[in-house]
Amino acid sequence: TYQGSGEQAMRRLVNVIESMKRTNIVTRTNDYLYVEFTTAFWRFVDDVEFSFDHDGKTIHFRSASRLGKSDLGVNRKRMEEVRRRFRAKAQ
After folding, report:
1. Between residues 73 and 80, which one has the greater pLDDT?
2. Which of 82, 84, 44, 83 has the alpha carbon at shortest distance from 64?
3. What range defines the domain where residue 49 resides?
4. Residue 37 phi, psi (nearest 5)
5. Which residue, 52, 71, 88, 91, has most beta carbons within 10 Å?
6. Alpha carbon distance 62, 76 (integer Å)
7. Taking the CA atoms of the chain, what radius of gyration do you get in angstroms?
8. HEC-encoded secondary structure of the chain
9. What is the distance between the alpha carbons of residues 17 and 12, in angstroms, rounded to a whole number?
10. Exposed, middle or buried by CB within 10 Å (0-12, 13-18, 19+), for 85?
């Protein structure tokens, strides 16, 4: 969840993503963000989508590896880091 306006939350999320290595923001609207993250070692591209529910002040996300069956927890760790940084910027 987030406080403030959806526009402020989007700006904060974009700042978080842009501060991370190997990211590419592909699509950005007022309530949707599609980002490609490239892994450090194998250079695999992971697709991450963020969808804003402005009424509920909630950001939903989906993160998926394009290749392979297991990413050894990389997607989960990355999303936990995005969440941590997003919350830290709110304070």
Report:
1. 80
2. 44
3. 6-90
4. -110, 135
5. 52
6. 10
7. 13
8. CCCCCHHHHHHHHHHHHHCCCCEEEEEECCCEEEEEEECCCCCCEEEEEEEEECCCCEEEEEEEECCCCCCCCHHHHHHHHHHHHHHHHHC
9. 9
10. middle
Kindly state whether residue 1 falls inside one of the protein's structural domains: no
* Burial track 65-83 (b if 16+ CB lie within 10 A, e otherwise): beeeeebeebbeebbeebe
In a domain, 62, yes or no: yes
Is there a domain that residue 16 lies in? yes
Work out how many domains the chain is built from and give that number.
Answer: 1
Q: What's the longest Cα–Cα distance across the chain? A: 39
The pLDDT tens digits for 40-61 are 888 889 999 999 999 999 999 9
- What is the structure's pLDDT at 14? 98
Is residue 77 domain-resident? yes
d(CA 14, CA 52): 13
